[in-house]
UniProtKB/TrEMBL annotation:
InterPro entries: 6-blade_b-propeller_TolB-like, WD40/YVTN_repeat-like_dom_sf. It comes from Desulfonatronospira thiodismutans ASO3-1. This is WD40 repeat domain-containing protein.
Length: 418
């Protein structure tokens, strides 16, 4: 997401009252903020149906139903909408020309120039990009995925029909992965999490080859080795190799192109992520039963939490990592083998500054008070609604989007103000 052309002048800007709309409304939904903080949207129930208000101005487009409003990275507002029992996606008030039996799971390319969604038509399933169906539709489809550039799609699809409780056909393999709407030739018992390489040219997925054997399948070809279980694969952005956590003899390790590179010594291992240069591999692990930390190039951190560790994030320079950590019923951020001193009722995915020096996150304080914290110190003001923070390109400022007293505010604060 390119933030270089956003307004980064320090200060507070009141965008709109979230309960205002220039149309006659019966009720409004919760607000949704654009990435740059210049827009706030609500779905509006009118006497005729549903409309959408952006900065208190209605689209003027009435639908029988509307839901799932989402802003694209380039600032366009989308929502799933229906008219006369047909569903489509509306983008800035303009519905896609094609309608479907149902549509859901809006997805965006990194830049936001491509919008995709899952579709159902006449009982068959697939994907559409910018309003056009991609390839074939299938009896069932799930795990919908869009490449980073938005040019390609992938999903797990059913390629073999079977009757209810037909366990024999199921065990022979009824599923595959469809890339750009075309299924791979192979049939498997199950498949999950199709994952694109960073350039979008390749796809890897989890695969269940029998009732008891699991492996990774890459571009339609399975690894030759099976494991007791596997988790999501990912591609090394430098070498193109595929790594995935694998379970062997009751413990978890890491495999690369089917060869085990981290011995199976962990009680759990997942959410692995490479640094942008591909030289550092991080993951969330349980070196002890019920105790969680981060492992970096097969070296575990010392700090542990006892309930949960999730949303692992790697810094742009690849030298740091952070994750949301839960100890009993409180949350904080685990970063660089240490925990932030402040604990919260909830924290969200950590965000690194472009220079990798700072970490920010949305947090919830006692009393359902929401705000933003940077490097363990939270902002001086609280909000009833708040969205994840965004750093300026020079890493010196942070964008805070929040609602106070019914007003949606766009705040640009200096990092050293925290």
């Amino acid at each position: 997401m390119d933030t270089s052309n956003w307004d980064w002048e320090k200060g507070v800007k009141v965008i709109s009252k979230i309960n205002d709309c220039d149309a006659e409304t019966e009720w409004l939904t919760e607000p949704y903020a654009s990435p740059d903080g210049e827009k706030v949207a609500v779905l509006a129930k009118t006497e005729e149906g549903f409309d959408v208000c952006v900065n208190a101005k209605a689209w003027g487009q009435t639908f029988d139903n509307a839901w799932y409003p989402r802003f694209s990275p380039d600032g366009r507002l989308t929502c799933v909408a229906s008219t006369d029992m047909e569903w489509t996606l509306a983008v800035d008030g303009e519905p896609w020309p094609e309608t479907y039996g149902y549509i859901w799971n809006t997805m965006f390319s990194e830049k936001g120039d491509v919008i995709a969604a899952a579709i159902q038509q006449d009982g068959t399933y697939g994907m559409a990009i910018n309003g056009e169906q991609v390839g074939e539709l299938y009896e069932t489809a799930s795990e919908f995925t869009l490449s980073a550039d938005g040019k390609r799609t992938a999903a797990v699809v059913q390629v073999q029909s079977m009757d209810a409780a037909d366990i024999f056909t199921f065990q022979q393999g009824c599923y595959s992965v469809a890339v750009d709407g075309q299924a791979w030739d192979i049939k498997v018992v199950n498949a999950w999490t199709p994952t694109f390489s960073p350039d979008g040219s390749r796809v890897a997925a989890q695969m269940r080859s029998s009732l008891y054997d699991y492996t990774i399948i890459v571009d339609g070809t399975p690894w030759s080795k099976n494991f007791a279980m596997v988790w999501d694969p990912c591609f090394n952005p430098k070498t193109g190799t595929v790594v995935a956590p694998v379970r062997m003899a009751g413990k978890w390790g890491m495999a690369e192109n089917e060869q085990v590179i981290w011995d199976p010594v962990y009680f759990q291992l997942w959410e692995q992520k490479f640094s942008p240069d591909g030289n550092n591999l991080y993951a969330i692990c349980a070196p002890q039963y019920g105790r969680w930390t981060v492992v970096h190039n097969n070296n575990t951190w010392n700090v542990l939490v006892n309930t949960m560790l999730t949303d692992l994030t790697v810094s742009p320079d690849g030298q740091r990592a952070a994750a949301a950590a839960k100890e009993k019923d409180k949350w904080t951020i685990m970063a660089d083998d240490a925990l932030w001193p402040q604990w919260y009722d909830m924290v969200w995915t950590p965000v690194f500054s472009p220079d990798s020096k700072h970490i920010a996150t949305k947090v919830e304080k006692p009393g359902k008070k929401l705000t933003v914290a940077i490097d363990g110190k939270h902002y001086k003001e609280d909000f009833t609604h708040c969205w994840e923070p965004v750093f300026s390109p020079d890493s010196q400022k942070v964008l805070i989007r929040g609602v106070q007293g019914g007003k949606f505010k766009r705040i640009v604060a200096k990092v050293n103000e925290f």
